[in-house]
């Protein structure tokens, strides 16, 4: 009978240790997500710095001031409908056919599929492709090397 009580005590101790380790793992997971978010914020800050030729005031570098502002700005950009931009009619009809409604959808198509679905679409040729990239470049969503800080948020 004494052995049975000892086993229950050691089992309870083991369960307590396991729950503590699970708590630690959960905390580590949350911290890694926060670091991933901070890396995205830093990339955005570096891209904006490069875009503005380094003219970002030092007070903007403070992460506690930038964090909410950047998230709101990025989400506002990504949620804009593609109809607000000056794409030609053929491109807009292709967007509608491929169910691309927002800038986020468009950037996802560019990032993940390398515009494969556009190229397969019958009425979408080289001029239409160039129109998409020109409009995105004019609005600052991509640079001349077809890179974008918004790809990290898509």
From TrEMBL:
SUPFAM superfamilies membership: C-terminal domain of RNA polymerase alpha subunit
Organism lineage string: Bacteria, Pseudomonadati, Bacteroidota, Bacteroidia, Bacteroidales
Source organism per UniProt: Parabacteroides gordonii MS-1 = DSM 23371
Gene3D superfamilies: 5' to 3' exonuclease, C-terminal subdomain (1.10.150.20)
Domain of life: Bacteria
Protein's name according to its UniProt entry: RNA polymerase alpha subunit C-terminal domain-containing protein
């Amino acid at each position: 009978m004494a052995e049975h009580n000892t086993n229950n005590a050691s089992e309870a101790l083991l369960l307590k240790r396991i729950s503590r380790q699970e708590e630690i793992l959960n905390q580590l997971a949350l911290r890694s997500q926060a670091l991933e978010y901070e890396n995205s914020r830093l990339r955005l800050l570096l891209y904006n710095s490069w875009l503005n030729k380094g003219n970002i005031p030092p007070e903007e570098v403070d992460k506690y001031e930038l964090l909410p502002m950047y998230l709101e700005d990025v989400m506002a950009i990504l949620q804009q409908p593609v109809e607000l931009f000056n794409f030609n009619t053929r491109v807009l009809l292709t967007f509608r056919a491929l169910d691309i409604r927002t800038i986020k959808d468009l950037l996802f198509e560019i990032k993940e599929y390398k515009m494969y679905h556009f190229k397969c679409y019958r009425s979408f040729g080289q001029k239409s492709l160039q129109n998409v990239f020109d409009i995105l470049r004019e609005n600052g969503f991509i640079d001349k090397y077809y890179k974008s800080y918004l790809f990290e948020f898509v």
